[in-house]
């Protein structure tokens, strides 16, 4: 079955702009979570969505937001981009409780210049 | 709050030698525990997971991990490494559901010929 699909793979944006990243989970998975990976901070949890509702949020400013659609696809948005937002953004899909494990996409590499 | 510690930032082993990567977690109850591997520029691939039951879990690519509650550890092992095992390895934990994964900083594995 198809894995987790993230688009686009690479993105270059200018400071102050906004960006939207997309994640299509594995068919049947209703939970999508997002992570930011940087060399300095490592992998950090951004937020988790289940059935179109945000159930949990990590310690990130309000510039980071997301949503989930009825088909479980999810988008995350970053507004007013800063240089420090340059990172690999990963999404993971899972069944409700995560017991089946979390399957990650290949990520979107965002570079802010 | 949950935390995961991977004490070794870098580990170098010779091809064919055995491997053990350390992981310690901090969580009130028994968390769900995971090991992931990441190749440069790629997403995370699940190696194995522990939820309950048998404390020795087998994963893909010949990896195994042992959960030790008394030591709050979940170390990853492989009896004989291959050059293709060179990658970044991440240990993660979650309480399940909407918690999201908490990751260690990762261990960079280098394989010497």
Topology at a glance:
The complex is a heterodimer of chains A (113) and B (113).
Chain A: E1 5-7, E2 10-13, E3 19-24, E4 31-38, E5 42-50, E6 53-57, E7 64-68, E8 74-78, E9 87-94, E10 103-104, E11 108-112
Parallel strand pairs in A: 2-11
Antiparallel strand pairs in A: 1-3, 3-8, 4-5, 4-9, 5-6, 7-8, 9-10, 9-11
Chain B: E1 3-5, E2 10-14, E3 19-21, E4 24-26, E5 32-38, E6 44-50, E7 56-58, E8 64-68, E9 73-78, E10 87-94, E11 102-103, E12 107-112
Parallel strand pairs in B: 2-12
Antiparallel strand pairs in B: 1-4, 3-9, 5-6, 5-10, 7-8, 8-9, 10-11, 10-12
Structure explained in plain terms:
The complex is a heterodimer of chains A (113) and B (113). By secondary structure, chain A is mainly β. Chain A has no helices and eleven strands. In chain A, strands 2, 4, 5, 6, 9, 10 and 11 form a seven-stranded mixed β-sheet that branches. A four-stranded antiparallel β-sheet of chain A has the order 1-3-8-7, with no helix packed on it. In chain A, strand 4 and strand 5 (42-50) form a beta hairpin. With 113 residues, chain B is mainly beta. In chain B, 0% of the residues lie in helices and 51% in strands. The chains are: A mainly beta (113), B mainly beta (113).
Descriptive keywords:
heterodimer; A: 113 residues; mainly beta; seven-stranded mixed β-sheet; four-stranded antiparallel β-sheet; 53% strand; globular; B: 113 residues; six-stranded mixed β-sheet
């Amino acid at each position: 079955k198809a894995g987790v699909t993230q688009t686009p793979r690479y993105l270059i944006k200018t400071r102050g702009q906004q960006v939207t990243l997309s994640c299509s989970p594995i068919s049947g998975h209703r939970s999508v979570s997002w992570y930011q990976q940087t060399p300095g901070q490592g992998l950090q949890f951004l937020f988790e969505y289940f059935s179109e509702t945000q159930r949990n949020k990590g310690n990130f400013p309000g510039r980071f937001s997301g949503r989930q659609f009825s088909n479980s696809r999810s988008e995350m948005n970053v507004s007013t981009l800063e240089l420090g937002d340059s990172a690999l953004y990963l999404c993971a899909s899972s069944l409700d409780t995560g017991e089946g494990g979390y399957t990650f996409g290949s990520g979107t590499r965002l570079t802010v210049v | 709050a949950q935390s995961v510690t991977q004490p070794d930032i870098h580990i170098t082993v010779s091809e064919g030698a055995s491997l053990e990567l350390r992981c310690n977690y901090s969580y009130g109850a028994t968390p769900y525990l995971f090991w992931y591997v990441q190749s440069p520029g790629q997403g995370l691939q699940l190696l194995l997971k522990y939820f309950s039951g048998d404390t020795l879990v087998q994963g893909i690519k010949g990896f195994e991990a042992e959960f030790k509650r008394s030591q709050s550890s979940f170390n990853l092992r492989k009896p004989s490494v291959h050059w293709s095992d060179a990658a970044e390895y991440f240990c993660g934990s979650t309480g399940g559901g909407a918690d999201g994964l908490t990751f260690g900083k990762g261990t960079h594995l280098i394989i010497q010929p």
